[in-house]
Amino acid sequence: MSLNQTRAGLAFAAGLALGIALYAPAVAAADDSTQGGWVDLSKLDAWRGPTTNWEVVGGTALDSKNDRKLTAETGEGVVYNGPTGRAVNLISKRSFGDVEVHIEFMVPKGSNSGVKLEEVYEIQIYDSYGVKTLTASHCGGVYPRAELLPKYHHIDKGYPPTANACKAPGEWQTLDIVFHAPKFDASGKKTANARFVSVKLNGESVQKDLEVPCPTGNNWRNQEQPTGRIMLQGDHGAVAFRNVRARPLD
Questions:
Q1: pLDDT in tens, 52-89
Q2: What count of other Cβ atoms lies within 10 Å of the Cβ of residue 212?
Q3: Options 3.30.70.60, 2.60.40.3080, 2.60.120.560, 3.40.50.360; which CATH number does 33-248 get?
Q4: DSSP-derived pairing of the beta strands 121-126 and 112-117
Q5: Which of 119, 124, 156, 121 is nearest to 141 (CA)?
Q6: CA–centroid distance for 76 within its chain
Q7: In sequence order, what DSSP letters do the residues of the chain get, joined into one string?
Q8: How many CB atoms lie within 10 A of CB 244?
Q9: 226, 97 in Cβ contact below 8 A?
Q10: Which single residue of 38, 61, 133, 218 has CA 20 to 30 Å from 147?
């Protein structure tokens, strides 16, 4: 083959490859935020603004001078509600119906937070380490109904966790939740209550197949919906979160 023929052949091959690249269907790049059906909620941009007083840090630990506070180190991967332990509640941009949720959290001594499915069905996060008599206000409990006036108070006992699996303050802990949203027929009539199919704290079952007939806390009169956003409570005490993710089940 002559030199000119070789050059012509190479030019044809290059043109053919370019044509294939131009007209072949695009292949979407893998989205790390939805691997395996999981939606990554670990970064602040997964939550609606404002995210006032939340900080992105590399890690947290108990404050050596005050075990009711957390300290933080520079970096990424953890969000916490700042040195004051007070921030706005985080509300996800995305809504969910039936959902599986994984959360890793850290609280100092005596601190209080929570995760609310559809913003109204709360699993309590609390420093319950060593507690013998559990109430619904302890970690893994389904929070009681409550009234705001004349002073905030509970009007039932909620659903206490069935075991105390809480670790010591300053340790990372996990919550794994399988939640089924309430169901409605075409006319909007509710046909099934919300249900916590499974709640595990640090791998131990603390709620199982628990039907919840109405929202919790002072939301109990709210109109229920088939979908809603996830809320992480940030205004009741110091808390840090990492590896937060949700997987739709419907």
A1: 999 999 999 999 999 999 999 999 999 999 999 999 99
A2: 22
A3: 2.60.120.560
A4: antiparallel
A5: 124
A6: 18
A7: --HHHHHHHHHHHHHHHHHHHHHSPP-PPP-GGGGGGPEE--SGGGBPSP-TT-EEEEEEEEETTEEEEEEEEEEEEEEE-TTTT--PPEEEEEEESSEEEEEEEE--TT-EEEEEETTTEEEEEE--TT-SS--TTSTT-BPPBEE-SSS-EESS--B--SS--PPPTTS-EEEEEEEE--EE-TTS-EEE-EEEEEEEETTEEEEEEEEE-S--BTTTTSPP-S-EEEEE--SSS--EEEEEEEEE--
A8: 24
A9: yes
A10: 133
Where along the chain do its domains lie? Answer: 33-248
Pair 59, 77: CB distance under 8 Å: yes
For 31, the token pair is 């989205």
- List Cα–Cα distances, 125 to 16, 43, 173, 205, 238, in angstroms: 61, 20, 10, 15, 11
β-bridge mates for residue 190, sequence order:
184
What is the per-residue pLDDT across 167-201, written as a single tens digit (0 to 9) for each? 999 999 999 999 999 999 999 999 999 999 999 99
pLDDT digits (tens, 9 = 90+) for 30-42: 334 567 899 999 9
Bridge partners for 47 per DSSP? 92
CB 63 within 8 Å of CB 78: no
> Do the beta carbons of residue 139 and residue 159 sit within 8 Å?
no
Q: Flag whether the pTM goes above 0.90.
A: no
Q: Are 159 and 142 in contact (CB under 8 A)?
A: yes
CA distance 123 to 163: 14
